[in-house]
C-alpha cells in the first residue's frame, strides 16, 4: 500500500497539468512503497482555491489570497509598523469562460487538462500508482474531499494542477513529519510566471527558518501560509478535521482552521512548492462577494475557542478584513453600507477589546471610522494610506505619550479620541551592523541604531546600554558601548552626507567575559542593545548586517584550541560562538577508486565528544537531503570516503536557475547522535576537483566561520583578482569545465543584464567591463544606480543554457571592495554574503544632495534664493521627468535649432534622470534632483516640458512655461479622475497650483482642446497646433529615418515588424514611480506561430522597470530604451497596444492597429475611465486573449479591411492638425517668428 498520496486537483481545462504531473515523476524516493497520485478533476472554475480579493494577476505582496501575509497599511507585530504605502490590486473582471461547444479554443482547452490526466492514469511512470476520480467536482474543496477519500496513503498532499513540486519536496516533508510526529509539515514557496521564478514574499516570514512541532499560537505569521500545495498532512489528523462548507474562493480559511486544529506543525525553510501566478476573480466592491468573504471570516472566528479567536481576530483585522476595507474607496455607497453593517456593527462588536487595543494606530483609526460610519472621513483616510503621505506622518508628543499624526488628529469635529493615535510598541528599533572586526584581541561591533521617528539630534536624547546574552542559560554580561555621531540612518556613513545625528554605536566585547565559571566552554552569545530615547526604552539584539564584510565577520583564536567565531544565525542575529576545537580536517582530496572518483576526508579527533564519532554526515543545505558515510578511526585520527557522484547527482537547479542547492554541511555524528562540526584550518588549501565528465565539479570550501563545506554540481567560475584599469573593471579567475561560458552582470530587483567581454586561456579567464560606458539603443550611457550580481551562463553539451553563480576565492574576498570614483558617480566591486560578487553603482547625486533632508534643504533654502537671481537666457527641456530625449520637447528643440540665427547657439539644457539619457553636444545635462535642477527651474527663461512639475515650482513673472503634455485623450486625466491612486489627499490642490504655472498648453486636436481646458482647469492660452512629435510622419526624410532605425535595431529586411507598446497600470508597481511589466502576451506561442516571418518589438512604458523576456532567436526585440518612439512607428507594420495614447500618433501611418485589452472593464470602470466609447470608436479590434492577437496578426489583411472605415473616421476626428508643421506653429507663438 502506498505510504504517501498526492491528490492533484485540476480544472478540466487546465493547460499546465502535464508539467505538474512531470514534477511528481521524480518523487518516488519519498516513500518506502510506491507513490500514489489521485487525479481529481473540477468542472471549469476560474477561481483557484484560496484566491480572493480582486481580479488581478497574483503577484507577491498583493492583498488576500494565498499571499495573505502581504503588507497592509498600519501593520501589526508581524507586518511591521505600517510606514509604507500599499500596492492596490487590480479590480479587473476576468473573461467569461466559453460555454461548451461555443469555440474551438474552449474545446482544445478541455482536451489539454482532462486528456493529460487520462493519459497519466492509463500509463503512469514507474513507481507511481495513478487513479482518476470518475466524475468532475463542482469545486476544488469538493475535489479535495473526494480525492482524499479515494486515496490510500498514510500521508496526504493536495496539489493544484497548475503548480509544481520541487524534486525533493515529498522526501523532505515526509522525513521531517515522520521524525517529529507532527500533524502537518509545511515548506517554503516560490512563485513563477512567464517572466521567471522568484521567492514568495508572503512565505518569507512564516517559512524563513526551520521549526519543529510549533503551532500558530507560537508563530502567528503561519496564519499567512494558506496554500495546500506546500503541505503534507498526516491522514489521521486530516480525517479528524471538521468538515466545513465554504465557497472555493474562501477555502484558504479552511487551511487556517486546520492550522489552528494542529497541535504540532513542522516548518521547513527550503522551497517545496512552485506556485503559478493566477488571475483572481473576486471583486470586493460587489455586495454579494463582500458579504460572503466577511461572513466566512466571522464564521471562522466564532468557531474558535476564545484564546485562538483573539489570535485570529487580530490577524483578520490586520489582513483579511483590511483587504476588503482597502477596496471600499472603489465601492459604491451600498457596498460600503453593507461593510459597515457586517464589520462595524457585527464583527467588531464581538472582538475582544484587548485585540483592538493591540492594533496599530492606523488600523485602530480605520475601524473606529467604520464603527462610527464616518463615510467621508474613511474615504479620505483610505486615500491617505495609499499615498506617499503615510510615510511622512509625523510623531508628536502630548505629555508623556507619543501620537502619530494621521488624518483628523485632534480634530474636534471628528470626535475621534486621541488614544486612537497613540503609539506604543509600534515605535520599533531600527538597527543595522556596519562593521565587525577584531581590535587588540577584542571584538568590536559598530553600526547605527535608533527608535523610529525619534532621531537623536542631540547627544542627550539617546542613551545606550549593551549586554552579551547567553540565550541558553539566560546569563547577561554588561559590555562597553560607545555612542558616536554618524550619518542619518538611510544614508551611507560618510562625513560629507547631508545630515548626521547620534545614532551610531560601537560595542566592544572582551572574550574573557565569555568564560563560564572561569573556563572556556562551548556557548553561543548574542549582543543586546538597550535604547533609551526621550523616556522610551526598547531592546534590540544586534542583527541586520549591511552587505559585504559585515556579513562574514572574522574568527580568531583566543587561547590554545579555543576560538571565537562570530556568525549570523538563521534569524539574522549576530551569534558570537565560543568554540573549543573538537575535530579538524588534515586532508580533503580527490582520489580514484574502483567504483569511481571519491573524496577522501581525513582529520584529527581533538576533544570529546569527537572521540565517540561513528559516522560522517553530509547535509545538503538548507536541509533537503542527508548522506551518511562510515568513519574509520585510529589513534585519534579519522577517515571517510565520499563518492563524488553521490553528491554531484543530488545537486538541485530548478526554477530557471533561481532555486539552486549545491552546498553540503560536513560534520561528525557520535553514537549518542550528537554532531561535531569539522574545522578546515586556514593553513589547509581549499580545492576544486572535476567530477566525472567535464562540466561538473566538487569544491572543498571553507565557510566564513572556518568550517568545512562541500559544493557539488555545475562547475562554477571562481574569481581570483579584481581591479580597476582606468574606467574598466578587470576580473581574473578560473573555470575548469569545457562548457561555453558567458559572464553577465544582472540587476537586482528588476530584469536587466549586461554581458562582459571574456577571454579564456585553458582553465583561466579574463573579463573586462566598463560600467560607465554601456552601449544602448539610446547611445552610450552609464549603468543606472543599483546593485548588479555577477552570474555565469553555461551552455551544456546538449545545447541547454544554465545560470551558475560566480564565486570569489577566499584570498580575493579579503581584498574587496575595490572602487572607481568618477565625477558623475562611483562604481564599487564588492561581495555580498561570503563570496557573491556584486557591482554597486552609486547615484549621480553628490553625497550632500542625497536623502530626504538634503532634498528638503535644496527645496526650501536653496531654490528660494536662486529665484531671486537674474534669469538666464536658456531653454530648459524635460521629457518624461528626465527619462528620455524625445516627444514634443525634442521636436521643439529641433525646430528651434533649425531656425538658425540666434537660436543656432542659444543655450539649451535637458533634464536627465540618473544619467540615463544621451544628449547632443549642444545641450547641457541637468541632473534630476541635483542642485542644477533647482537652479534651472529657478533661473531658465524658457521651460518646455511634457511632464508634471514639482509642487514647489513657482514660475517667475518673466519666465515662460510651455506644457506640451504627452498623451491624447482616451484615458481620463487631471481633475476628471475622481479616485487618484497612490497620490496624496491634496493631489487636486497641487494640480491646480501647477497648472497656474503654465503659460501655454499644447493641444493635439480641436476635439482634445475642451477636455484639456476642463481636466486641468487651465485658464491660460491653449495652443491648438497638433502635437509637434507627429511632424516626423510628414518629414521628407522619413524614409531615410526609417532605414536608419531598421539598421540601428538590426531588423531583418524581409520580416514584418509588430510593435507591442502597452501603457502602464496604475495599480501594478514595485515602489513609487517603478511599475511592473504586466505582460499578458504569450511570447512563446507568438514565436511558434509568427517567428518565421515576423519580429516583435516590445516597448515598455517609461514608468515600467522590468526588462522584456527573450524568446526565440531574433524574434523579440526590447526597444524600450530607443529614444524616440516616433522613429519606431516608421518601421512598424502593425501596432499592438491597449489604452496608450500612441494610437492617435500611429494613426498617421495608416497601418493596422490591434488593441490587446484584456482588462478593459477594470481599466475603464475602476482605474482611469475613458473620454469616449473606445469599443465603438477604436480603429482596430479589441482583443482579450493572447491567442486572439496571434490570430489577428495572421489575418491582418482581413482585419485591416474590416476596420478601414473606422480607421478613417478615427483619423478625421483625432488627427486633423497633423501636417508636419505643429512644432513650427508652437515655436512661432512662444519664441517668435524670427
From TrEMBL:
Subcellular location: Cell membrane
Record domain Glycosyltransferase 2-like: where: 139-206
GO terms under cellular component: plasma membrane
Residue spans of biased composition, Acidic residues class: 61-79, 87-105
Entry keywords, A to Z: Cell membrane, Membrane, Teichoic acid biosynthesis, Transferase
GO molecular function: CDP-glycerol glycerophosphotransferase activity
Gene3D superfamilies: 3.40.50.11820, 3.40.50.12580, Spore Coat Polysaccharide Biosynthesis Protein SpsA, Chain A
Protein name: CDP-glycerol:poly(Glycerophosphate) glycerophosphotransferase
Amino acid at each position: 500500500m502506498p505510504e504517501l498520496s498526492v491528490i492533484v486537483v485540476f480544472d478540466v481545462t487546465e493547460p499546465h497539468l502535464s508539467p505538474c504531473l512531470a514534477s511528481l515523476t521524480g518523487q518516488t524516493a519519498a516513500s518506502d512503497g510506491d507513490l500514489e497520485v489521485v487525479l481529481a478533476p473540477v468542472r471549469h472554475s476560474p477561481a483557484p482555491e484560496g484566491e480572493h480579493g480582486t481580479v488581478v494577476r497574483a503577484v507577491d505582496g498583493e492583498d488576500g489570497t494565498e499571499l495573505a501575509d502581504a503588507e497592509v497599511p498600519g501593520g501589526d507585530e508581524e507586518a511591521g509598523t505600517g510606514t509604507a504605502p500599499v500596492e492596490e490590486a487590480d479590480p479587473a473582471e476576468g473573461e467569461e469562460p466559453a460555454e461548451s461547444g461555443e469555440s474551438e479554443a474552449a474545446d482544445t482547452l478541455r482536451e489539454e487538462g482532462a486528456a493529460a490526466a487520462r493519459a497519466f492514469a492509463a500509463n503512469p511512470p514507474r513507481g507511481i500508482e495513478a487513479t482518476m476520480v470518475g466524475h468532475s467536482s463542482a469545486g476544488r474543496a469538493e475535489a479535495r474531499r473526494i480525492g482524499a477519500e479515494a486515496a490510500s496513503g498514510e500521508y496526504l498532499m493536495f496539489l493544484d494542477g497548475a503548480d509544481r513540486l520541487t524534486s525533493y519536496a515529498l522526501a523532505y516533508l515526509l522525513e521531517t513529519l515522520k521524525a517529529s510526529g507532527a500533524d502537518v509539515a509545511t515548506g517554503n514557496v516560490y512563485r513563477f510566471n512567464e517572466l521567471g521564478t522568484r521567492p514568495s514574499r508572503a512565505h518569507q516570514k512564516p517559512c524563513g527558518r526551520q521549526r519543529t512541532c510549533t503551532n500558530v499560537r507560537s508563530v502567528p505569521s503561519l496564519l499567512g501560509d494558506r496554500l495546500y500545495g506546500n503541505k503534507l498532512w498526516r491522514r489521521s489528523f486530516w480525517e479528524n478535521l471538521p468538515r466545513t462548507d465554504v465557497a472555493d474562493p474562501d477555502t484558504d480559511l479552511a487551511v487556517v482552521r486546520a492550522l489552528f486544529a494542529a497541535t504540532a506543525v513542522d516548518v521547513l525553510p527550503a522551497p517545496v512548492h512552485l506556485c503559478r501566478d493566477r488571475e483572481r476573480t473576486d471583486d470586493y466592491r460587489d455586495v454579494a462577494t463582500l458579504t460572503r468573504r466577511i461572513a466566512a471570516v466571522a464564521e471562522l472566528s466564532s468557531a474558535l475557542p476564545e484564546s485562538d479567536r483573539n489570535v485570529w481576530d487580530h490577524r483578520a483585522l490586520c489582513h483579511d478584513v483590511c483587504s476588503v476595507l482597502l477596496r471600499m474607496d472603489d465601492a459604491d455607497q451600498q457596498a460600503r453600507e453593507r461593510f459597515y453593517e457586517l464589520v462595524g456593527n457585527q464583527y467588531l462588536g464581538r472582538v475582544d477589546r484587548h485585540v483592538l487595543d493591540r492594533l496599530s494606530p492606523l488600523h485602530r483609526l480605520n475601524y473606529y471610522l467604520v464603527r462610527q460610519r464616518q463615510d467621508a472621513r474613511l474615504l479620505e483616510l483610505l486615500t491617505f494610506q495609499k499615498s506617499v503621505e503615510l510615510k511622512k506622518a509625523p510623531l508628536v508628543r502630548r505629555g508623556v505619550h507619543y501620537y502619530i499624526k494621521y488624518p483628523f488628529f485632534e480634530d474636534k469635529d471628528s470626535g475621534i479620541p486621541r488614544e486612537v493615535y497613540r503609539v506604543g510598541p509600534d515605535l520599533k528599533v531600527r538597527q543595522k551592523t556596519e562593521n565587525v572586526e577584531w581590535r587588540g584581541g577584542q571584538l568590536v561591533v559598530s553600526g547605527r541604531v535608533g527608535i523610529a521617528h525619534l532621531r537623536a539630534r542631540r547627544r542627550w536624547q539617546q542613551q545606550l546600554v549593551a549586554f552579551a546574552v547567553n540565550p541558553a542559560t539566560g546569563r547577561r554580561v554588561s559590555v562597553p558601548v560607545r555612542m558616536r555621531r554618524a550619518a542619518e540612518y538611510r544614508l551611507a556613513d560618510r562625513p560629507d552626507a547631508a545630515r548626521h545625528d547620534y545614532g551610531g554605536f560601537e560595542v566592544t566585547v572582551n572574550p574573557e567575559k565569555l568564560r563560564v565559571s572561569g573556563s572556556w566552554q562551548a556557548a553561543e552569545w548574542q549582543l543586546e542593545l538597550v535604547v533609551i530615547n526621550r523616556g522610551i526604552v526598547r531592546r534590540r539584539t544586534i542583527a541586520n548586517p549591511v552587505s559585504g564584510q559585515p556579513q562574514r565577520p572574522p574568527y580568531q583564536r583566543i587561547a590554545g584550541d579555543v576560538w571565537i567565531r562570530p556568525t549570523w544565525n538563521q534569524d539574522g542575529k549576530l551569534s558570537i560562538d565560543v568554540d573549543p576545537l573538537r575535530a579538524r580536517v588534515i586532508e580533503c582530496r580527490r582520489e580514484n577508486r574502483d567504483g569511481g572518483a571519491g573524496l577522501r576526508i581525513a582529520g584529527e579527533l581533538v576533544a570529546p565528544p569527537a572521540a565517540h564519532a561513528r559516522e560522517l554526515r553530509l547535509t545538503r543545505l538548507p536541509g533537503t537531503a542527508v548522506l551518511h558515510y562510515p568513519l574509520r578511526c585510529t589513534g585519534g585520527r579519522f577517515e571517510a570516503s565520499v563518492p563524488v557522484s553521490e553528491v554531484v547527482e543530488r545537486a538541485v537547479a530548478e526554477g530557471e536557475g533561481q532555486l539552486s542547492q549545491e552546498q553540503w554541511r560536513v560534520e561528525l555524528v557520535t553514537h549518542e547522535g550528537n554532531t561535531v562540526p569539522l574545522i578546515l584550518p586556514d593553513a589547509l588549501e581549499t580545492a576544486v576537483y572535476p567530477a566525472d565528465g567535464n562540466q561538473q565539479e566538487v569544491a572543498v570550501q571553507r565557510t566564513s566561520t572556518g568550517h568545512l563545506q562541500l559544493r557539488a554540481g555545475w562547475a562554477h567560475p571562481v574569481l581570483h583578482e579584481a581591479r580597476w584599469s582606468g574606467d574598466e573593471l578587470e576580473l581574473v579567475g578560473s573555470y575548469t569545465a569545457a562548457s561555453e561560458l558567458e559572464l553577465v552582470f544582472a540587476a537586482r530587483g528588476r530584469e536587466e543584464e549586461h554581458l562582459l567581454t571574456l577571454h579564456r586561456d585553458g582553465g583561466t579567464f579574463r573579463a573586462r567591463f566598463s560600467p560607465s560606458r554601456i552601449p544602448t539603443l539610446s547611445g552610450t550611457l552609464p549603468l543606472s544606480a543599483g546593485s548588479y550580481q555577477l552570474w555565469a551562463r553555461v551552455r551544456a553539451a546538449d545545447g541547454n543554457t544554465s545560470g551558475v553563480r560566480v564565486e570569489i576565492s577566499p584570498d580575493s574576498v579579503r581584498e574587496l571592495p575595490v572602487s572607481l570614483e568618477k565625477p558623475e558617480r562611483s562604481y564599487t566591486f564588492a561581495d555580498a554574503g561570503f563570496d557573491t560578487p556584486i557591482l554597486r553603482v552609486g547615484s549621480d547625486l553628490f553625497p550632500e544632495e542625497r536623502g530626504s533632508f538634503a532634498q528638503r534643504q535644496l527645496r526650501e533654502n536653496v531654490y528660494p534664493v536662486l529665484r531671486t537671481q537674474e534669469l538666464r537666457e536658456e531653454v530648459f527641456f524635460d521629457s518624461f521627468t528626465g527619462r528620455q530625449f524625445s516627444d514634443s520637447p525634442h521636436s521643439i528643440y529641433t525646430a528651434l535649432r533649425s531656425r538658425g540665427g540666434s537660436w543656432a547657439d542659444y543655450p539649451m539644457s535637458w533634464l536627465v534622470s540618473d544619467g540615463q539619457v544621451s544628449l547632443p553636444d549642444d545641450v547641457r545635462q541637468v541632473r534630476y534632483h541635483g542642485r542644477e535642477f533647482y537652479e534651472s527651474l529657478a533661473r531658465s527663461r524658457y521651460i518646455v516640458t511634457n511632464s508634471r512639475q514639482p509642487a514647489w515650482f513657482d514660475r517667475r513673472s518673466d519666465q515662460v512655461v510651455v506644457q506640451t503634455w504627452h498623451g491624447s485623450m482616451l484615458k481620463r486625466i487631471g481633475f476628471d479622475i475622481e479616485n487618484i491612486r497612490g497620490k496624496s489627499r491634496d493631489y487636486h490642490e497641487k494640480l491646480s497650483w501647477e497648472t497656474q504655472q503654465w503659460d501655454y498648453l499644447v493641444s493635439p486636436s480641436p476635439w482634445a482642446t475642451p477636455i484639456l481646458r476642463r481636466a486641468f482647469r487651465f485658464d491660460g492660452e491653449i495652443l491648438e497646433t497638433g502635437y509637434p512629435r507627429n511632424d516626423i510622419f510628414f518629414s521628407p526624410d522619413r524614409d531615410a529615418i526609417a532605414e536608419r532605425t531598421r539598421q540601428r535595431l538590426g531588423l531583418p529586411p524581409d520580416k514584418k515588424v509588430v510593435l507591442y507598446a502597452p501603457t502602464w497600470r496604475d495599480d501594478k508597481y514595485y515602489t513609487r514611480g517603478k511599475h511592473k511589466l504586466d505582460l499578458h502576451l504569450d511570447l512563446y506561442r507568438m514565436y511558434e506561430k509568427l517567428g518565421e516571418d515576423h519580429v516583435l518589438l516590445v516597448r515598455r512604458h517609461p514608468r515600467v522597470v522590468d526588462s522584456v523576456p527573450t524568446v526565440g532567436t531574433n524574434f523579440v526585440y526590447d526597444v524600450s530604451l530607443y529614444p524616440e518612439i516616433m522613429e519606431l512607428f516608421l518601421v512598424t507594420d502593425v501596432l499592438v497596444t491597449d489604452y496608450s495614447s500612441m494610437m492617435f500618433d500611429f494613426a498617421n501611418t495608416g497601418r493596422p492597429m490591434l488593441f490587446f485589452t484584456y482588462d478593459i472593464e477594470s481599466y475603464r470602470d475602476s482605474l482611469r475611465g475613458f473620454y469616449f466609447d473606445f469599443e465603438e470608436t477604436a480603429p482596430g479590434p479589441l482583443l482579450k486573449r493572447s491567442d486572439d492577437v496571434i490570430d489577428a496578426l495572421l489575418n491582418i489583411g482581413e482585419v485591416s479591411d474590416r476596420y478601414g472605415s473606422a480607421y478613417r473616421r478615427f483619423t478625421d476626428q483625432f488627427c486633423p492638425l497633423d501636417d508636419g508643421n505643429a512644432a513650427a506653429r508652437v515655436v512661432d507663438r512662444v519664441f517668435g517668428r524670427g
